[in-house]
Amino acid sequence: MIIYNTTFHADDSIIDEFINWIKQEYVPAALANGILIEPRLTRIFNHKEDNQGQSYSLQFRTKSLEDLSRWYKMTGNILLETIGKKFGNTVAGFSTLLEEMEL
Starting from the edge strand earliest in sequence, which strands make up the sheet with 54-62, in order? Predict the structure, then answer.
């Protein structure tokens, strides 16, 4: 199983709006075609008191890199463009691909 993780950093001025948008718009759109499953949103603790904004990790699972590539072409690039248009430079993000391993 592949874990598709995106780390977002949101400016303090839009945190509530951003979290609501992730929950109400982004996650339902990401799940709509059934390729991504099991969404998980977590807040990342800041290490320094003077940090501005807040960071979050949004994770989904998918069966394969091929499925993820298909999802990105169908949905992911549209969501990325939408984030840019809606939040501009108040939200930044990067994605990481993880492979789940047996313990």
Answer: 37-44, 54-62, 2-10, 91-99
